[in-house]
Amino acid sequence: MAVKFKQKCEKCKTNYVIVSSWRQRRPIICYECEKKDMEGEITDPAMKKMFDIPEDYYKQNSFLRQIKINYMKYKSLTQPQIDAFKKTVDDMKKKKPVHDG
Ligand SMILES: [Zn+2]
């Protein structure tokens, strides 16, 4: 079980971000600040489907945001990144019900 703690966003220095200490190897940026980096059109149907998850998941998990931002930036992901993304989403689905229609 990863240790989680809260840390202030390094960009806006206002919002708190929940950080998994063992995984965090990048600046701690909150959802609000990263939101615009995640926007954009996804043309690959498989990727579109993969990223089509409740907005809450992106809010709660900076790893999911990181993967999406990577994809928007480079338009590609490695297989391990895709697997990790799907696994994280699966884990979050198991934890609590999804209220997404
Ligand atoms: Zn911020």
Strand order of the largest sheet: 1-2
State the shape.
globular
Helix fraction? 40-55%
Strand content: 5-15%
- SSE topology string: EEHHHHH
Instruction: Give the N-terminus to C-terminus distance in angstroms.
Output: 30 Å
Number of strands: 2
What average pLDDT do the residues reach? 88
What's the main sheet like? 2 strands, antiparallel
The DSSP helix count reads 5
Alpha-beta classification: mainly alpha
Oligomeric category:
single chain
Unreliable runs: none
What hetero molecules are bound to the protein chains? zinc ion
Radius of gyration: 13 Å
Sum this structure up briefly.
With 101 residues, this protein is mainly α.
Word description of this protein:
The protein is mostly helical and 101 residues long. It has a domain at 30-95. Helix content is 50%, strand content 10%. It is built from five helices and two strands, in the order ββααααα. The chain has helices at 31-38, 45-51, 55-60, 62-74, 79-95, and strands at 4-8, 16-20. Strands 1-2 form a two-stranded antiparallel sheet. A hairpin with a 7-residue loop joins strand 1 and strand 2. Helix 1 runs parallel beside helix 4 (62-74). The longest helix is centred in the last third of the chain and has 17 residues, at 79-95. The mean pLDDT is 88. The site of zinc ion (ZN) has 8 residues, from helix 1.
